[in-house]
Structures are given as structure tokens and as C-alpha cells.
Amino acid sequence: MSEMKQRAEHGRKKKAAFGPDVNLAEFSRQGGAWEYDPDYRRFSPEERSRLLTTGIELSDEDHAGTFLQADKTIVHCRAQQPGVEVLPITEAVRRYDWVADHLWRLVAVDADKYTASTELDLDNGYFIRALPGAKIEQPVESCLYLRTDRFAQHVHNLVVVEEGAELHLITGCATHPGVVSGLHIGVSEFYVRQGGQLTFTMVHNWGKQVHVRPRTGVLVEEGGHYISNYILLRPVKSVQMYPTVTLNGPDAVARMQSILIAHPGCELDVGGRVILKAPRTRAEVIARTITTGGTSIARGHLVGLVPEIKAHLECRGLILDPKGVIVAIPELEGRVAGVDMSHEAAVGKIAAEEVEYLMARGLDEDEAVSTIVRGFLKVKIEGLPPALEEEMERVIQETGKGL
Amino acid sequence: MLKIEDLWVTINGKEILKGIDLHIPPGEAHVLFGKNGSGKSSLLMAIMGFSQYTLRQGKIIFLGQDITNLPTYERARLGLGLAFQRPPTIRGVRTRDILAACAGKRPYQDLVEQYGFAPFLDREINYGFSGGEIKRTELLQLMVQNPKMMLLDEPESGVDMENLQVVGEIIGRLLQKDRRRQHREKSGLIITHTGFILDYINADRGYILGEGRLCCQGNPRELLHDIKSYGYEECAKCRR
User: Fold this and answer.
1) What is the tens place of the pLDDT at every residue in A260-316?
2) What is the edge-to-edge ordering of all strands in the sheet holding B80-83?
């Protein structure tokens, strides 16, 4: 047994540091026998509609590459432009010797039972690489799809943005409209080489009883930029994630934004950690959370290890239902003098005077609340597909109704 | 335009307005004086229908319609407009969003250009605005909203002399002061402490509000002179 497998065996029963514990035995490892679908013909209109609102357009047009995994099966995988590689991770490991060496370097295999299970019983995952100097203007679209009820999906993803390259990746994770429960474990390791730029937008659209455990590590080298956007607007049972970005070279930059809505019954424990290890690195972690009755823990952790770094953390929460709970836990950890780190955290409900101010301009109460909610959730996210932007607008309108 | 009959208002059970009677005909601008805490802002808020202000008794008639029980937005849509003294900051909501809400389908870009407001459009409403900027924003919203009856809560407070002229000109325009008296259709009820605004608009009538009652009324400039000469306490005793 390899050393990695041995470590995974040790971690097989290890509970995660945060979030509700999930009994893995409650889920099936028997996914559907889906076939490769080069033209996306095997998707019903209702599946297409659901995936569209997750940012997945099911089209090779206007995309530099596409990847779609349903349960265990890769049903679509294609690189469309020079300078981009898109492969199933299992294929990438076979094709390139160096790929295996990049796995489990940024996320510990024995971090918890979710990472361990992924190593011990892998389904697949994506490998996406932007070759040195390649400026990939169109996004690569990837989709991790749960098509079978009660299925536990284990994926391991690797993204490498080589020196001076630029890549925009949109990942939509969703369940089939008929799927209620399930488990998604997604281990992701991203390498942004010197001067590279990775924009990673992840949209979740799960069933009401689905548990989600992403495990993400990111390494950014000198002058590299990592921008991540995480959007969760629809009900889910639980999400626990705490991606860690290490800024390893001078002038590296990380910006992490998340927009979360905790619906009744949801348990969200979502954080972002940035370790600033080199001079003149900069980081910004921004969380906007709304609860309509669920619980949301918004964590943020900035670690400054050298002077001349600048980092800011912002957690803002809006409680729209008396049963909702938002906990903001910002942490600043400066290890030397000369770091510039700050945080801003605020949790509250919509002020009546704000609603009435807008009503005095002729908006009815629903319109006024929607305007305030929309403003609250407004963070700059560029390059979203129009269908996803419309979905965000629609959900925000719905969220504001009847409050 | 606006008629208020025997209006009694409480906030959290405390009586704030005690039997206000007021009549503002079309085309007229009336001003409201009164010391701090006398109930001036409460009167404007109650006219606008804000939830904190409980109407215990009385009626508000606007354009012949009883609006006493209408929600705020319906009053606004009928043609009541309020410029707040201290408007709230709403994070993430841009000035542009509010102007769009005020405008409905009417174009408003010309007004923005005319009053040099383009740089403010993408700023969050009232966030980090100076006193003068807040007042100008409030008045610009009213211009875009184009109400028939303006309620202006201390439009000149916190405004420097340079901005005061701009504010005065905008209010004059809102109240159609450029037209001959018989052709004016818009009305206003304006709260002022300093009376500076009287230099820019020819107000038709003034009132002094004391302890929740309209205790004196008459020519606005004369009232201001009396307040300056004798103070609010003496004016309250006068009851003319």
C-alpha cells in the first residue's frame, strides 16, 4: 500500500474540524451508468434549465474547454482552444508523470474522513491546465453533477495555471432536479505559477438534503493572481469548507468573495484563509451572508508571516428571519511587525428606516427590501454567464418577498 | 393640495402631535418653524405615513383623497415627496439605483448633468457624503420623482454658503418659483431653523410648532423676525 493510501486509511474515520459530521455509510457509492455525451443530447429540458441556473450552459460554444462529470462518469470533456488542456484527473495522472506529485500537496490527504475517502475511493475529477503564457479569454466550464439520489460523489480536481498564463474557470455543482439527498466531496488543488492569473467562480445548486464538503488548497507564486467567487443561493442541507490560499511569492494577490443564502434547515460553515508568506503580497476575503432561517458561520483567517503585506477581511451578514443565525468569525494573525491587516464584521437585520426611505421614493415594501438585499449582495463578479446573472437577480427578488 | 384635520400622533405611546390643522393650497409654499423636539419632523413623517408614527386621531387629505391609512409608497406614487433631514446610508445601493426608482420610466440624465451629479451616480447612497452632498442628493431625487407636494425637512442645515445657493435654486425650481403665481401647480411644506431658505423662495405662509401644536401662524418673514427677537417661548404664548 502506498504511503498516501496508508495516511488516508489513518484518516478514514477522522471528523472534520468544523461543520456537522456526516455519516458516510448513509450514502450509496453506486452511481448511474451514464454514457459519454459529446453533444449534450442526453439532458432533459428540466436538467438543462437547472444547470443553466447554475452557470452551466451545456455548450462547447464560447468556452475554451468543457468538463462534465455525472456521479462517477465523465460524460463530456473537451478542450476547445490552443493553450488549454482539459482531462479527467485519472487520465491526466496516466498521461503526465508530474501530475501525481501535485496531488495532496495543498490539501492533506488525512485532513479528515472526506479527504481520506476521496483518496481511498476516487470517482474522478477534472484536470485543467493553461499552458505557459496562454491568455485564455473564454471561460472553461466544468460541472460536477449528482444525478442519482443518495449518491456520494468523490472527486479530486487539479488546476495548473502556468507561468504568465490566464484562465477563467466556472464550476457549477448541482443535483438533478429529482435528487433530494446526497453527498459531494470535492478536493481541489490549484497552482498559479509566476505571473499567472486564475479566476475561479464556483456556483452551487444542490438538493435540500445534500451535504457538501469541498476541500481546497491554492498556491500562488510570485506576481500571480487568484480570484475566487463562491455563490450559494439555493437550499442545501450542509456545506462546510475552508479553502486555504498560500501566497508564496512576492507581489502575489488573492481575492476571495462569497455570496451565501442560508435557507431554513441549512447549515453553512464557510470560510476563507489566506497565508501571506512573501513581501508585498495582498489578500482580501469578503463574505456576504443572508439567512432566511438557516444557520451560517462565516469564517475568515488571514495570516501575515512577513512584513510589507496587506490584507483585509470583511464579513457582513443580514438576518431576514428571526430563526436565522449568522456567526461571523474573523481572525487576523500577524506574526511579525510591519504587517497591515484589518477586518470588518457586521451582522444585523434590515433597518426599517432604510425600507421606508425607499418606500418614500415610491417602491412598495417587497421592492424596497429586494433593492436593499441586492445592494447587500453586490460584489463585483465579472464574466458570469447571463443565465446565472438572471438567476441571481431572480433569487434575490424572491428572497426579499414577504419579509 | 394638502389638508390636515385635527391630527394626533404618538410615537411608542408618547403624544407628539396634538391636534394639527393645516391647509396648503396648490402653488403655495408654507414654512414650519419650531425649536428642537417640537414635532416638526414628526409632522412630515406622519404625513408620509411612516410606521413609527401612530395616527391616533385625525385625517390627511391629499388632492381630495383621504390618504390617512395609505402605505407610504402609495402616498409617494400619488405625488407626495419627502427630502429627509438625515437620510439613511444604504450600503451597496447606488445613487443611480435610487434615482432609477424615483424616475420610473422618465429620463433623468439631463438633471444629473445639469446639477453636476454624474460623479455621484455610482457611489453608495449617502455613504461618505458631506452635508451639502446629502441635501443635493435628496433634492435631486425629488426632482426626478417629480412630486406635486414637497415636504422638505431642513434642506439648508449642514450646507455651506456655496451649496446653499444651489440648494435654494433647486427648491425654487421644485416649487415652480419661475412661474407666475397663478400658474404654479406644486406646493411645499418646508422646515427651517435659520430661515436662509426664505432668501430663495417666497414662502406664502409660516407656522410655529410648539409642543405638538401649531401655536402661531402668519407671514413667514415676520414670524422669523419675532422668533429672532423674542424667542420661541414668547411666540408660543402669542397664539395668533
Assistant:
1) 999 999 999 999 999 999 999 999 999 999 999 999 999 999 999 999 999 999 999
2) B80-83, B149-153, B187-191, B29-33, B205-210, B213-218
Global ipTM: 0.94
Q: What pLDDT, on the 0 to 100 scale, is given for residue B69?
A: 93
State pTM to two decimals. Answer: 0.83
Following CA atoms B51, B57, B62, B63 in sequence, which dihedral angle do they give, to the nearest 10 degrees?
150
3-state DSSP assignment of residue A331: strand
The pLDDT mean for chain A works out to 92
Cβ pair A359:B88 closer than 8 A: no
pLDDT at A399: 55
- Whether A251 is in a domain gets the answer yes
pLDDT digits (tens, 9 = 90+) for A346-383: 999 999 999 999 999 999 998 899 889 888 887 766 65
Rounded CA separation A363/A371 (Å):
9
Tell me if B53 sits within 8 A of B42, measured CB to CB: yes
Is residue A398 included in any domain, yes or no?
A: no
With beta carbons less than 8 A apart as the criterion, state whether A221 and A248 touch: yes
A195-221: b (≥16 Cβ within 10 Å) or e:
bbbbbbbbbbbbbbbbbbbbbbbbbbb
Residues of B in contact with A367 (CB under 8 A): 101
3-state class of B42 per DSSP? helix
* Shortest CA gap A371–chain B (Å): 7
pLDDT digits (tens, 9 = 90+) for B118-168: 888 989 999 998 888 898 889 899 999 999 999 999 988 888 887 888 888
* Total number of domains in chain A: 1
* Best B75, B90, B143, B149 residue to mutate vs chain A (most A CBs within 10 Å): B90
B224 — phi, psi (to 5°)? -60, -40
C-alpha A369 chain-centroid distance: 27
What span, in angstroms and rounded, lies between the C-alpha atoms of B159 and B170?
A: 14
Q: Is the pLDDT assigned to residue B198 strictly greater than 90?
A: no
Task: Please determine, for residue B234, whether its predicted confidence score (pLDDT) is greater than 80.
Answer: no
Q: What does the alpha-carbon distance between residue A65 and residue A234 come to, in Å, rounded to a whole number?
A: 26
A97: part of which helix (H) or strand (E)?
Answer: helix A97-101
pLDDT digits (tens, 9 = 90+) for A384-394: 666 666 666 66
Q: What confidence score (pLDDT) does residue A41 get?
A: 86
pLDDT reported for residue A383: 59
- CA angle (B40 as vertex; B18, B237 as ends), nearest 5: 60
* Chain A: residue whose CA lies nearest to B85: A357
Range of the domain at A320: 3-365+377-387
- The answer as to whether A187 is a domain residue is yes
**Which residues of chain B are within 8 Å of residue A376 when distances are taken between CB atoms?**
91-92
10 Å CB burial of residue A115 (0-12, 13-18, 19+) is buried
Three-state secondary structure call for residue A213: strand
Contact (CB, 8 A) for A275 and A304: no
Whether A7 maps to a domain, the answer reads: yes
Nearest residue, CB atoms, B88 vs list A316, A351, A371: A351
- Report the Cα A9 to chain-centroid distance in Å: 27
Short-list B103, B1, B102, B14, CA closest to B54: B14
The answer, yes or no, to whether residue A241 has pLDDT greater than 50, is yes
